[in-house]
Amino acid sequence: MGRSLKPVTLAALMALVAASAAAARPRVDELYRLSDAETRSISPENLTGAKGGGSRTPLEKGSATTAATDLGFGWKVNPYIVIPAGGRVVLGEAEGPGVINHIWLTAGGRASYRSMILRIYWDGEATPSVEAPLGDFFASAFGKESTWLIDSAVVAVNPESGLNSFWQMPFRKRFRMELENRSSRPNSLYYQIDYALQKVPADAAYFHAQFRMLDRLKPKELYTIVDGIRGRGHYVGTYLTHNAFSPGWWGEGEVKVYLDGDQDFPTLNYTGEEDYFLGSYGYRHRGAGKLEETDYSTAYAGFHAHNKTDLATQYYMADRERRIAQYRWHILDPIHFRSDLKITLQGLGWKSPTRYRLLEDGYSSVAFWYQAEPHAPFPKLPDDAALQFKPLVEPPRPAFVTGGPLTLDSPIEAIMMSWEGRQLLNRELPTLGTHPSYDQFKGMRLKDLQPLSEGVITDQALANIDAGLKAMVPRPR
Fold this sequence. Notes:
The protein has nine helices and 27 strands. It is of the alpha+beta class.
């Protein structure tokens, strides 16, 4: 009996390996290999994805009827659809088995990316496995007017607003993809869903994406990137927006991953927010002699500052907001779980060179993972108004004196550039010029820096410096 089982077991194993290889993303050095897969694509010009089903919209029913008048049936008659205000449309559905390989789209009109909700259902399920605002799903939460160009392994955002997903999404019986327009304005949509009808291996998991947000952390509160995942699977990516309201550095908090029964202590513990997103030291880079936060987009991680911060004049100013977006794809390092998964982020910055600052910042995120169905229910999405970004809190205009005698309204750097002024500051504030963050606050006024100095810059020190500056005799030019 043992001998008769061996060939069957081996054959089954070989079949599984072959099926897995067929469903996997093709490598460049294997593109010459033949496959039994059948390529299909759903778009406004072929709403069913049927073979030979493209360019069949009658001229009088197309979205581009006027533009195609001189060309007629079979030309570019229906390149986009219009989603009415408050409407919900099926972008595409198809019978399986198969794999969605690519989604491209671009949204016209004036509806916010946050008002467009993308949902994907697998194999007839009642609740979606993908539910997220359109822009957040494509790592572009800040909208069409603030598109960040992304060149990564699974998401590409190209000029002006070409949103692309290359996440592989297998389905066995069928898929259905929907888009809801929650806004009060109609919105046009150009899109393409590229998929293949092919065998799906028995061990293929289903793609999931879940959105969460929190307007403002309470002191010592954690931001939850994802929680309540139940079943077996692997976590593959995070897109995070961070609204930083506190002065100074905002990304010191740790990302913690609790899996398979972890309670008080996580199994995976990343050492800081910018470390998890594969950056370091505040994403600062000294380019052209100037220290600045620097955007980057790589295959597996990226950082984008929505409103740029001048590290010399604005970084430590209070009463302002900075908006940041970051992504991290766990393509080569997926996080495997067997029963459950939870991921959190601390809100931490620095309030001195030696002490952390608890932050009360705002966050939103999309978590991406694969798992065997069924999945646990998702949290209910906020309503349309709650999803929108609030008006940006702009930095106060500095009241710097750019010329003439030095005063307390002069930038710290300007005082330090004067020999007499430097001696004055070194006497009253001996650690100021050697502070590790000097390059980041040297463009500020001393009285603006005072509230952040934890008592180092006293009222008496400011009075002494003010008197010393007034006593300085301007040198003739």
